[in-house]
Amino acid sequence: MTGEPRSRADGTPDVLVLDPDLPEAHRRAMAAHPALLPPPPRPAWGGRTGGDVLAALTVSALAGFLPLVLALARRGRRPVLVCAAALLQAATAGVWIGYGFAAFFLSCLAVQAIAAVTLLALAGESPVAAYGRRHTGRYVHARMLEPVDAALLERTAQATGVVLGSPLDADGLLDSVANRVTLPRQAWEIAGTLTELTRLRREQDAARSGRVTERISAVLASQQEALTVATRALARRIAALEEYARRTEEAQAVYAEWRTLQDLAEDGDAYRELLSRTVRDPLAADEVGLLSERAIHLREALRDSVEQARQAGSGLLSEEG
User: Fold this and answer.
1) What are the tens digits of pLDDT across the range 171-194?
2) Which of 129, 173, 198, 216 could be joined to 168 by an S-S link, Cβ 3.0–4.6 Å?
3) In 10 A of CB 272, how many CB atoms?
4) What parts of the sequence cross the membrane (predicted)?
């Protein structure tokens, strides 16, 4: 799963749902760069272009002969990089002084060659694209789907993200273990169904683009009805996820207020002492005590709100149980 869904320039939501069983490092990289998926066919030379070669030769020449100048010219230059470049510059200058210009020139050429090879190795397409080709069929991006299915995928990602990103889940007030295991699998199952719906919709569009006889029209109408029923059923499942997310957001708001009151109540002794010094009135303690009472009432409201959220998710989570 990606984080908060974003929209691309063409209006397609930048939503990506991943197979939970993908290697964790691959999942993190792919989730961080959903716009790179699905990748184009494997390019020649690993996606490296003539521009990459020219840039590598130019930068490596500066790295070989004037490393300090290159380090100082970089935006956001780091002290460590500048220090390393200064040491390299001093080393090449030492070679010139100690062994002459010919040795200096050859050593700089060696550094340039190493730098050029390194830069070319780092150039080309992103590793995420390679992951995308390697794991074809184990992720679904919104732009792989028809608009109606992409919208359902976006709703799924939003609802799942709300629950998994909630402080309630992080603090263990919800069924965190079940959420972490079940919700990504639920999202992945929904994404798989949406992929199949899109495939069938496109098959129908292709059939309608040809010669449509009365019999073909009747079959297509029957298939369209099946697609409509399946889409509605899936939409109800997604609505259940959204209800869980809505209940979680409501409980989260109460939780945030309760934690604030808890923090204020911890300072009760200081306020009580302050009021006793200035007012000298028994009511002072009662005024401060209101914080604790409010915290108690809010804690009860929080308990009810969290319970409602847990009940909203219990049906979803029990499916994997």
Assistant:
1) 777 776 677 888 899 999 999 999
2) 173
3) 15
4) 53-73, 80-97, 103-124
